[in-house]
């Protein structure tokens, strides 16, 4: 059983490896969660500082209990995204995605890829690594050029 922080670390690794391609937005929820998690990681510190400044400047309108609750809520947003991504990265690919995964692997590395896929069931993290490699080698239009979608 993985601890909470191990899941967050795995979610961060998955976030870093998931390709940022528009074509994947309609295929996987992971793309949208990754975009929103990246956005929340970038913007959360700004809103935390803004909440603290508003509390200091206007203490009658913003008391510390409301500010602390708001800050905890803001800090929870990127943590929730990383946790979801960490859990998702550990899931095995469903049987509907296996032929698609094998087709991409076959395009990238030839016939030997089908044998290695059958040795272990790939996870969503394996799919992220494969897609990252595919887009790096084949360009932004990799899936459309090879008619895999």
Total helix count? 7
As a percent range, the share of strand residues is under 5%
* Chain-averaged pLDDT: 87
Distance between the termini: 35 Å
Number of strands: 0
Uncertain runs: none
Major beta sheet summary? none
**Structural class category:** mainly alpha
Shape: elongated
Order of helices and strands: HHHHHHH
What share of residues is helical? over 70%
Rg calc:
20 Å
Overview of the structural elements:
The protein has 149 residues and is mainly alpha-helical. The longest helix is centred in the first third of the chain and has 29 residues. The two termini are 35 Å apart.
Highlighted features:
7 helices, 73% helix, 149 residues, 0% strand, mainly alpha
Describe the SSE topology.
Blueprint: H1 4-17, H2 29-57, H3 64-90, H4 98-109, H5 112-119, H6 124-138, H7 142-145
Helix pairs in contact: 1-3, 2-3, 4-5, 4-6
């Amino acid at each position: 059983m993985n601890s909470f922080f191990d899941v967050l670390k795995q979610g961060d690794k998955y976030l870093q490896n998931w390709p940022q391609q528009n074509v994947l937005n309609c295929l996987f929820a992971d793309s949208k969660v990754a975009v929103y998690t990246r956005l929340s990681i970038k913007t959360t510190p700004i809103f935390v500082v803004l909440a603290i400044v508003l509390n200091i400047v206007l203490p009658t309108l913003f008391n510390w209990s409301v500010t602390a609750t708001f800050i905890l809520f803001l800090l929870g947003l990127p943590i929730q995204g990383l946790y979801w991504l960490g859990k998702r990265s550990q899931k095995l690919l469903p049987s509907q995605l296996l032929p698609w995964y094998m087709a991409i692997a076959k395009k990238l590395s030839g016939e030997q890829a089908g044998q290695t896929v059958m040795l272990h069931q790939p996870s969503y993290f394996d799919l992220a690594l494969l897609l990252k490699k595919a887009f790096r080698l084949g360009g932004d239009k990799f899936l459309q050029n090879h008619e895999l979608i």
